[in-house]
Amino acid sequence: MMRRRDLLRGVSMTALTAVWSRVARAAGIARVPAKPPAPIPPRYFTAGDHIDRMWRDVYRRKIDSGHFMRTVFNSYLKELRKLNRGEVDEVSAAARMLALHSEALRYPAPPREISPLPADQVGVAEVMALLRRAIAGEVRIVVAQPWSDVCHTHGDFSIDGWRLTGFRRNYGIKYIESATSPDGRRGSHDSWSAREGNPVALLTDDEQDALDDLLEKVP
User: Fold this and answer.
1) Quick one: pLDDT at residue 44?
2) Which of 189, 215, 212, 218 has the alpha carbon at shortest distance from 49?
């Protein structure tokens, strides 16, 4: 969604261009056709957005966690402090975070050997498929309590006979803690971490955002 400050910036630049054109004509200055204002991206990512997406790629193992903590983490904290102190503006901070993210992606986590899934466990792909069905509106999410009441803790919900527990910080869902299938098999944060990763973390950015919004709106 386009942010209000970006819209105001575009309107201001258009107004200034029009005023300068009138002044130039009145002074007899040869008119140079003004370049149209640059189009505003349909979705502008703040520095915080870029940080969140960088962490998502760490959880997806697209960025090696050791390299991230040794090399990237302190750099992004430094840039964030500059932004909080007003030493840089939001646009500059966002550009710096994007550059840090791009550099970090050059250091993916090493491949991991994954053993066959035990018969009594729920696999990562199963939970991801279930969440995608909910995002697509094919099945309903039923929460044990209003999701907005779950803050920095775990909350329970169900989808099509599955029982799940997820962690909510202050919006949406950060990860699935556990999932129990209708036939009694179970998967947990630890069992998935030892394999491909957490089902929520492996969804695309758009899917994660859609799941967050969906959970927040469940009555």
Assistant:
1) 60
2) 212
